[in-house]
Amino acid sequence: MRFQLAAVALLACVGSVRAEELTIALRVQAEGFQPATIAAPAGSRIRLEVSNETATPIEFESFELNRERVVPAGQKATVYLSGLSAGSYEFFDDFNQKRRGVLTVE
Amino acid sequence: MLETLLITWRETLEAALVVGILLTYVARSGQRRAVRYVWLGSATAVVAALICASASGGAMALLGGETQEVVQALIVFGAVGVLSWMVVWMHGNSRSIQGDLHRQADSALATGRLIGLAAIAFVAVFREGVETVLFLWGVVVQRGVQLATMPLVGAGLVGAGLAIATAWLFFRGFAFLSLRTFFRTTGVLLLLVAAGLLTSGVNKLIGLGYLPPLVPQLWNTSWLVRDGSPLGAVLGALVGYRSRPSLLEVLAFAFYFPLMLWALNHAEAATRAAGPGEESARPAA
Known about the structure:
The complex is a heterodimer. Chain A has 1 helix and 9 strands. Chain A is of the alpha+beta class.
């Protein structure tokens, strides 16, 4: 409980100084990510909304972004990213590694 | 096919390593009842993973994706707590275990502690189990239930089996250590596992937007050990290795691990002070 309170307090502090929040929709279809290339300005807070439109579970994963999230078939998950510096960050579906995409931060 | 095998190997390895350490740890201290509880926890987790994964469209969906993730993170933190306490407690007991082997050790293992052991095994296996089952299930659904799919599922199961073999080989190495060194090594290893679990829980909460990463990428060691590589997987399972950790994850590790190491030494010193007779009767093994 105390941990949660601390987390909320910390989040509130960080939230107050944060300027822009960006929502990017990323669809996962049988043939791959749609769109396969997404872009965001450096330093922004990103809400990456991953919707799995396939009939099987997927795992959104990126070593470069240090994120992984299982998304069951037909469901949506929001992956938060923040403070990224310029560069390109690859991501893929760990359950079907032919599905790949890139996030370009500039 | 090889990809399927590698994926299940990687997913199963973490669970196999944790269960392996637990089994080696309690078996060596002669606690047979505890060994059974570790197996019980693991077996229950396999069943639970099968149920959860197959119900992921139903019951799990009711919880909602975000809630599931938060629940998972909380379960991980719970496991870190139980694991920390087990290590410190067990280490404090390893002296008396040497002295008067099974009887004393058995009586010292209250049911609550056995359930604690089972709980850690459960969490370790369940976490990775759900993913493995979901992944294999996906393979079957994608290609249809037919003869051609079976080799793929087989490859997946072989991958899981290989992970267990990897963990087994890993712990065979520990048999050569003296009892004293053995408890030190496995104790520290378990604390590393717990520290890795802690950072993975923190990572989850960062991804969910509940915690700020502070600095998203503190360093990048992917040139040395890639995350997806076999070595990366082993290190990931043992110490929660990630090539590009955020500052908050590093802080969690850097705070937890030294503190627990201190507690471990403290518990050891306290036992030594309490039972000097045993220590002198049995010079360092």
